[in-house]
Design brief:
With about 270 residues, the chain is an alpha/beta fold. It has eight helices and seven strands.
């Protein structure tokens, strides 16, 4: 029941925010960037507050190496579900993040599609013309530089339905760094694969934990070889980081199962 309440509440939130954002941007076009940031951050806060209240969804950040984030960076990470985007926005408060996403998300989803279309995100055809995709990413990188925002790319190119890390594609990462040289921040996120579809949301949302682990920061990269080596290293560290997160989740689950019988006996 809590899952249904959470989902309907989020849908109602999107239906309310969608026309409000459109009207605000229309009335104050010079403040479009700030308006979009305000609405997006407010929506994300409300989404996770609703899910925490009705479905006990948690967001957690691990930074074992004490990584200090630069002012601007390119975030490279794995991809498990549509909830990854709001999760990263919530996990990087105060950082204007812009995502490379598939074009289909740019229509049909209240509020979400409007934000993706009008707030500087890149919408690319996943299986379309590679040249068109690279041109879109080039424009996207230049917008991020003008706005002072941080580009985010999922080098797998699509969601991993079982949460395992897929093959990394390098062209998008290289194009962004060619256009706007930035430090490369690598992170791993786990939890979204449990709610990758609408059916999964209804069945598995309760007690979902989004765990992000910051893995590394690489200074601004230069030559193509350096970029390719950094991407290959990022995938290795993401796979290893995912194993750490899942081991921790499994251990906590075992602890909960042990504690429940003990409480019932008392």
């Amino acid at each position: 029941m809590g899952n249904l309440i959470a989902l309907f509440s989020i849908l109602a939130l999107f239906m309310l925010y969608d026309p409000a954002l459109g009207l605000a941007r229309l009335l104050v076009p010079r403040k479009a960037f700030e308006i979009s940031e305000h609405f997006t951050n407010a929506a994300v806060r409300h989404i996770f507050s609703i899910m925490a209240a009705y479905a006990r969804v948690h967001l957690e950040v691990e930074n074992p190496s004490g990584i200090e984030l630069p002012e601007r960076f390119l975030l490279l990470t794995n991809h498990q579900s549509l909830m990854d985007i709001p999760a990263f926005i919530a996990l990087f408060p105060g950082r204007p993040l812009r995502f490379v996403a598939k074009r289909e998300l740019g229509k049909g989803i209240p509020f979400v599609s409007r934000v993706l279309r009008g707030s500087g995100h890149a919408l690319v055809e996943r299986d379309g013309d590679a040249g068109q995709a690279m041109r879109s990413i080039r424009r996207f990188a230049r917008r991020c530089e003008r706005e002072g925002s941080c580009p985010v790319i999922f080098p797998e190119g699509t969601r991993s339905r079982d949460g395992e890390v897929g093959t990394f594609h390098t062209a998008g990462v290289r194009k962004i760094l060619d256009e706007t040289p930035l430090p490369l921040v690598v992170a791993v996120l786990d939890g979204g694969w449990r709610i990758a579809t609408l059916k999964d949301l209804l069945l598995n949302l309760r007690d979902t934990r989004f765990r992000m682990r910051l893995l590394s920061v690489t200074p601004t990269l230069g030559a193509k070889k350096e970029v390719l080596e950094a991407i290959a290293s990022a995938r290795i560290s993401i796979v290893a980081g995912l194993e750490i997160l899942r081991a921790k989740t499994a251990s906590e689950k075992r602890d909960r199962q042990i504690r429940r019988p003990l409480r019932s006996e008392t």
